[in-house]
Amino acid sequence: MNASLNGVRVLLADDHAMVRLGFRLLLEGEGATVVAEAGNGEDAIRLYAEHRPDLLVMDVSMPGTGGLAALERLLAWEPKARVMMLSAHCDEIVPVRALKLGARGYLCKQAAPDEFLRGVGEVARDRRYLDPALAQSVALAQLSGANDPVATLTDKELAVFIKLAGGATVNEVAAAFSLSPSTIGTHLYHIKQKLNVQNGAELTLTALRHGLLES
Questions:
Q1: What letters, b where the CB count within 10 A reaches 16 and e where it falls short, cover 49-72?
Q2: Nearest-CA neighbor of 207 among 134, 150, 157?
Q3: What is the pLDDT along the chain (215 residues), one digit of tens a residue?
Q4: Other C-beta atoms within 10 Å of 136: how many?
Q5: What is the three-state SS of the chain?
Q6: Which of 159, 168, 173 is nearest to 212 (CA)?
Q7: What does the pLDDT read at residue 215?
Q8: CA distances from residue 155 to 70, 99, 171 in whole angstroms, order as listed
Q9: How many CB atoms lie within 10 A of CB 80?
Q10: What is the pLDDT of residue 145?
Q11: Sign of the alpha-carbon dihedral angle for 29, 31, 37, 43
Q12: Are strands 105-108 and 9-13 parallel, antiparallel or unpaired?
């Protein structure tokens, strides 16, 4: 186990209370302190500003402002923030985006508890960390990502795509990202053009194929 988490102050952001509890027990068992918990991206940013933790452990998929959008907003405000992203998504596309946006680490939720604690320890020491199970596919994606239509989406388009594919309406996505419905509509038009899809069902199917939604 990672014995170097004594005194490390952690903010947890995940929309599942039982998941947060599991993370809290693991972290506190190794000497870390969980200073606060958030269930969405907006609260994660607010609580980070309030508590100034050593690191933020944040899920990619949350209601409202999702993890990627929250990561982008947080790092625009506090570039030195140490963030480790967690997700059930084990496709290489989201990890590559998260790391490019400035996340210090990325871990699949399927990882063993020891791997989670190792990742937290690395990010707390301001080192980069990537789930070993993703390392090869992420490296290959960075070399050949242009061959994948989803990889051509901008960061904002990818975030909008995930929300819409998950069943959110244009108005709901607009509210989540504090944008106008017409702006989301423009993003949707570009997304459909790039992915060569016609409707919501095809958006969802494409997201599932890329591991961007939990089936």
A1: eeeebbbbbbbbbbebbbbbbbbb
A2: 150
A3: 445 799 999 999 999 999 999 999 999 999 999 999 999 989 999 999 999 999 999 998 887 777 888 898 899 999 999 999 998 766 767 787 888 889 999 998 888 999 999 999 999 999 999 888 777 666 666 555 555 677 788 878 888 888 898 888 999 999 888 889 999 999 999 999 988 888 888 888 888 777 676 54
A4: 10
A5: CCCCCCCCEEEEECCCHHHHHHHHHHHHHCCCEEEEEECCHHHHHHHHHHHCCCEEEEECCCCCCCHHHHHHHHHHHCCCCCEEEEECCCCCHHHHHHHHHCCCEEEECCCCHHHHHHHHHHHHCCCCEECCCCHHHHHHHHHHHHHCHHHHCCHHHHHHHHHHHCCCCHHHHHHHHCCCHHHHHHHHHHHHHHHCCCCHHHHHHHHHHCCCCCC
A6: 159
A7: 46
A8: 12, 12, 19
A9: 7
A10: 52
A11: negative
A12: unpaired
What's the rounded Cα separation, in Å, for the pair 37 and 17? 9
Tokens of 69: 């959008």
The whole-model pTM stands at 0.72
Which residue has tokens 């500003």? 49
Structure tokens at 135: 């390392």
